[in-house]
Design goal:
Blueprint lengths: L1 H9 L2 H9 L5 H19 L5 H24 L7 H21 L4 H13 L3 H14 L4 H14 L3 H14 L4 H25 L3 H4 L5 H4 L2 H13 L4 H5 L1 H5 L6 H14 L4 H9 L12 H21 L3 H18 L6 H20 L5 H13 L3 H14 L5 H8 L5 H13 L4 H18 L3 H13 L3 H18 L2 H13 L5 H12 L6 H15 L4 H13 L6 H13 L2 H18 L1
Length: 594
């Protein structure tokens, strides 16, 4: 190992001596460089090899080269130090090659080597490098694209770029990004040739016999599009993704028409296609440059396409796209500079679309929410209530539309209370019942200033539910009582909570948490709560025993003598399979508190 290191260092002496001779580095600095390289070289030879060691050595050489360039410029060194310059660059190449020989699968390392070759303009090496990395990583589409761009931009070889992308597509047939880059490359090639001919004043035939009228008319790009869509049949969004690429180049209008025609023919019943066709005329157009009459005409044309679409495809997805477009135009018309007449026109179009979707039963939940909001804003209360009922039947777990209605100022509190009472009476499912009660209680606590009325409502809610629903409502009741009435009224509930069978574990834990957070703790009350929990859950709940013991130790008013008693009670009460767990966790808790 030592001989290899020494041989490697001796090979760098000529370049270091040259740097010392021209005054870029002093003798002492040369000595430090040799010492540092020796340490790095030993690291590279150790087993097992680590990629971090190679990256550290590479970074050191890069920094050394930057320092050399900076000093040469600062000191005004005119002498050419070609051996030194070539030596550092060659050493970096060698380090990268040694690293990649050991870590062929490290993509990051390959990319760093590629970037280094670009920085030092070693394009000949770069071409070979792409060949090696693609042979090792043929499934990495990004590398194929980088290699093709190198051939097109640096080597000026579109045929090689095309061949690389075709090979990449064969290896990654499912990669849509590769198809798009291939399509873009063909358009870019045509664009470059057109600009070249324009600059030189040449005709196609004079410039290159290979370039035909079909090529200049983007027929090659169209063939790529057809091959791509054939390989990814049934993907309308992929087909449409070619259109933004064509807009990056001039003279592609005919190609765009051909793609549109293909998409319309292949996907006549796809909502995504109809949505794109309807929005097509807007494109990248700046609507602020149009007059209001022109905008209204364009909006009417778009609505005509959407009406045709929903007539052909009466689905919720299609209606949702139509409604989404109308909603976007409504927001745009609400900005300054637009007349009230245009806003009303767009609003009517939106309501028309929503009503047709309701009649056809093709509404999504978001569309229902939007329609309820519009009806409430216009004060059409009976229609809003009817629509909310329709939503509650279709989406029984969704309460959001009723929340919109309850928040509306157009309905009276009496109307809201009447509907809530009716909804609760007609509901038998516990999951829906608890949501209705929570909705009722949230509204009541926010709108009613009379706390006893809300408390009575909570009592009714708790009494009408059972199981986990009852526990959740009790917790909500306790939270509300603590804020609205105070700890005294909460404590009135404790006997009832403890006497319930089975005792609600979550409810008791909530009460215990409240008591522990009081400024003056009532240990008698806390013990009653713990004892209530343990009466039903003492044989299965290790955490409650441990928490009870911790309270006796840490809270004011606790009794240390109770800790030992609780320990032995727990050992006797817990199920045999839980005793070991309890003892283990108790030991950890005891050690952490001492």
């Amino acid at each position: 190992m030592a001989e290899r290191v020494q041989k490697s260092l001796e090979s760098t002496l000529p370049e270091l001596e040259e740097l010392e001779k021209v005054g870029i580095f002093s003798r002492e600095e040369i000595r430090l460089i040799v010492r540092k390289r020796r340490r790095l070289e030993y690291r590279l030879l150790r087993r097992p090899a680590r990629v971090a060691d190679y990256l550290r050595a590479i970074q050191y050489e890069v920094n050394l080269d930057l320092l050399r360039k900076h000093r040469k410029k600062t000191y005004g060194v005119d002498s050419k130090v070609r051996d030194a310059e070539r030596g550092i660059t060659a050493r970096l190449h060698k380090l990268f090659q040694r690293a990649l020989k050991k870590f062929k699968g490290n993509i990051r390392l390959w990319l760093q080597y590629i970037e280094f070759c670009k920085r030092v303009n070693h394009y000949h090496t770069l071409g070979k490098l792409y060949g090696k990395v693609l042979a090792l990583h043929p499934r990495n589409s990004g590398l194929w694209i980088m290699a093709a761009k190198h051939q097109l931009d640096e080597e000026k070889n579109p045929a090689a770029a095309r061949a690389l992308l075709q090979q990449g597509i064969r290896a990654n047939g499912e990669c849509k990004h590769l198809w798009l880059e291939y399509f873009k490359m063909e358009l870019l090639h045509v664009d470059q040739m057109v600009k070249r001919q324009s600059l030189l004043g040449l005709d196609v035939a004079e410039d290159d016999e290979v370039l035909t009228d079909d090529f200049m008319a983007n027929k090659t790009a169209l063939a790529v599009y057809k091959a791509a869509t054939s390989a990814n049949a049934g993907d309308v969004e992929f087909c449409l993704s070619f259109l933004p690429v064509t807009k990056l180049f001039t003279n592609t209008e005919h190609l765009q028409e051909q793609i549109w025609s293909s998409v319309k023919g292949d996907f006549p019943d796809e909502p995504v296609m109809w949505d794109a066709v309807a929005r097509r005329q807007w494109g990248d157009m700046d609507a602020s440059l149009l007059t209001e009459d022109q905008v209204i005409q364009m909006e009417e044309k778009t609505m005509t396409v959407f009406r045709e679409a929903v007539a052909r495809i009466p689905t919720a997805d299609m209606y949702d796209k139509m409604i989404s477009w109308c909603q976007g135009r409504l927001q745009d018309s609400s900005s300054p500079g637009h007349s009230v007449a245009r806003q009303q026109t767009i609003l009517q179009q939106l309501q028309e679309a929503l009503q047709i979707a309701v009649d056809k039963d093709c509404m999504t939940l978001d569309s229902y929410k939007l329609y309820v909001t519009l009806l409430l804003d216009e004060g059409r209360m009976s229609e809003a209530i009817q629509l909310c009922k329709t939503v509650s039947q279709k989406y029984p777990e969704c309460m959001e539309v009723w929340q919109l209605w309850l928040a509306s100022p157009t309905a009276t509190d009496k109307e809201k209370e009447s509907w809530l009472e009716e909804a609760i009476k007609s509901t038998t499912k516990q999951d829906r019942l608890i949501r209705l009660w929570q909705l009722y209680l949230t509204w009541s606590s926010g709108s009613q200033e009379d706390s006893p009325t809300t408390a009575a409502l909570f009592e009714r809610a708790v009494a009408s539910t059972m199981g986990s629903a009852r526990e959740q409502l009790l917790i909500d009741y306790i939270d509300w009582l603590l804020v609205a009435m105070g700890i005294g009224d909460v404590r009135v509930l404790y006997p009832r909570i403890i006497s319930d069978r089975p005792v609600g574990l979550a409810v008791c834990n909530k009460c215990i948490e409240i008591e522990e957070n009081q400024a003056s703790t009532d240990m008698k009350m806390i013990r009653q709560l713990y004892e209530g929990v343990l009466s039903d859950h003492g044989s299965s709940d290790v955490r409650t025993w441990l928490s009870y013991m911790k309270c006796e130790i840490s809270l004011p008013g606790g009794d240390l003598s109770n800790v030992g008693k609780l320990y032995w009670r727990a050992v006797k009460t817990l199920s045999p399979e839980l005793v070991a767990t309890f003892i283990s966790e108790h030991t950890v808790q005891h050690n952490s508190t001492t």
